[in-house]
């Protein structure tokens, strides 16, 4: 028994040490696409011991470079799921899909109100009309898909705060008959179908005739999209998504932060976050010009990433669309509106984080 | 370093254990002392100086107390000095801001808070050094002559930052000479893995649930609020007792026998019983060094109640510098006085289930006082517990279905049954290799699962903002 015990002790501690050393010594990744962040490597560990940087860096390096890291993450997620857990890392696990959990504590109603009022003042100063298209969170409109009793923030309250400051508000929650094909299974964004229905509702809200979906001749660009929610809860039972994109009229040019880009960045299809195919992701200020629609005026859009896949449906109807993403640039909306000669400001943002 | 971190598990622990056993016996205490300083400096590269000061200070006090020809009055003076300095350090770091904050509130002034963080583990090692000096003064233990050996006792890394509180008398016989028995070491590993699993497989899950529920305080139906309290109760038990198990386990690998800290507290049949099973080493400390010196129960009931008041107020604020902790301690004081004066007698006559139910309800309620360290949060949570927002909603079913299995596992492992069943299963082959192999395999599986969760929980999807 002594021999057996001794061998076990040696085995136990050498296995631990081997895992630690191998993780640090073997060449590892410097970037985690799944998590969208840089990973700490052993060579990047700071030497500042007194300030504690060395210690926290080494902690990060050991967990970031751990040999079986992704195996651990997926196995851990599966075990949690099997134990009955239905919200993992901020994603609700529903039948065959994930839906982002937006709890009451994730939403700041004060900020929603403050932002809406700020937009109203900006439009006032620029002297042009203002409208809001409030994008619904999937958990609000696909409530029937959520696990029974799952917490969802108060979207009535959020929408009321927005329309109080911006009377011309389109509440997409009710304006569209949402179904499960409107949102990706693995990502929190809406699909081409969801974005098209939002476009349609917006045109109808304005009393215009929307184009039919066939006119956009949607193209399937990938069937292998694992989105943001899948990164949070990588579960085997969830199939990858398909991304479709609408056709863009000829002659359209796009400038983002001074550089010329395309409406679609097909390079993103070889990356993990394939939703970046729309404009290559978010930009501070982005301008789309469509000479074919000359005379149809300039539209100023203040937006989040939901708008990236909605705006391509709008391009045909405006000579120029200027998109502002306030998370990526500090701009004075009123002066930009005047500078670009915008005839209208439309806010296209998710209600929960308006 | 915390025990459930990658650096500890994969680098520090195996290296320290291997080096310790390879070194010649006379170098081991020095090595353990040095390794413990590295372990401590990992979190507190600056505050390690305070711990070293306490070590040297109490070493000197111990030697002086035993010096021949020292007058009793001088000895008393040394003791008072030692207690004052040790408690003074603890009080300065732990309670200064609390006192300033309270004074600001009462007198309407605005003295600025000091910008100091609390040195990790100071509440634990202060109590250890105090026990030593007092015991040397009382002649219960001999003063340690070797400062390396003494430093090793104060700073020993397994129990340094979260206990158990090891009195010098507890391990005096193993300071110089420790047996090296592979069977003992293997048992230590089993214990360590058991503690690690409790922490990462169970406690952390409840951490997520408690965060979720407490974030909704003020809108919770009573059933959900009680589920939250239960989640916190399991979280703190599996976290703390898991940590103690790991400490005892590592201690055993190194040849120590550290005192036990928990004995299935949620099986207690009265609140009095609960406190004999929960954080045992702290209870023993307060009994030995506060309650009994104050006269204990030898000076009549009123004095006994006063002594209990002192002990429980101190126990409360030992856990944290906040009014809620004081309230928590006083809550137990009231319950214990009630039990002492009449309830205990009634409970003894009633079926054990009655006592268990009473204890569980009292303890569950106490955890909400403990967990809500913000007065506003506490008031909202308390009103939720008593139905200010109704009693039931679909979210209750959600919590139950999402966490029911974890609750069941936690409830089972809070009792002595799993251990009893396992012991019975291998009972007949107890001392044969087969029993060992089964245990070893179980430990390795539990370790693998724990690693999956340690690494998985450090996984950090960071989706929107990478500037």
Quick rundown:
The complex is a heterodimer of chains A (354) and B (467). With 354 residues, chain A is α/β, with parallel strands linked by helices.
Describe the protein's architecture and organization.
The complex is a heterodimer of chains A (354) and B (467). Chain A has helices spanning 2-25, 53-64, 69-82, 109-126, 138-141, 155-165, 172-175, 192-205, 228-232, 305-314, 333-340; strands at residues 31-32, 37-38, 87-88, 91-94, 97-100, 130-135, 169-171, 219-225, 241-245, 253-256, 259-261, 285-289, 298-303, 320-324, 344-350. Chain A has two domains: 2-67, no CATH class; 88-353, no CATH class. Chain A is of the alpha/beta class. Chain A starts with a helix and ends with a strand. Chain A has eleven helices and 15 strands. The model of chain A has no long low-confidence stretch (mean pLDDT 91). Chain B has two domains: 6-178, no CATH class; 184-413, no CATH class. Chain B has helices at residues 6-22, 28-43, 48-65, 72-107, 122-138, 147-155, 157-160, 168-171, 182-214, 222-253, 271-277, 280-291, 301-318, 323-349, 352-371, 375-385, 394-413, 417-425, 433-458. At the A-B interface, α1, α2, α3 and α9 of A face α1, α2, α9, α17 and α19 of B.
Which secondary-structure class do the elements of chain B indicate? mainly alpha
Q: Radius of gyration of chain B in whole Å, from Cα?
A: 24 Å
Main beta sheet strand tally, sense and closure of chain B? none
Spatial strand order of the main sheet of chain A: 7-6-15-13-14-12-10-11
β-sheet strand percentage of chain B: under 5%
Which parts of chain A are unreliable, with pLDDT below 50 for 5 consecutive residues or more? none
| Helix-strand sequence of chain A | HEEHHEEEHEHHEHHEHEEEEEHEHE
How many domain regions of chain B?
A: 2
The average pLDDT score of chain B comes to 90
Number of domains of chain A: 2
Which stretches of chain B are low in confidence, meaning pLDDT under 50 for 5 or more residues running?
461-467
Mean pLDDT of chain A: 91
Total number of strands of chain A: 15
Biggest interface and which pair forms it? A-B, 59 and 65 residues
Rg calc of chain A: 24 Å
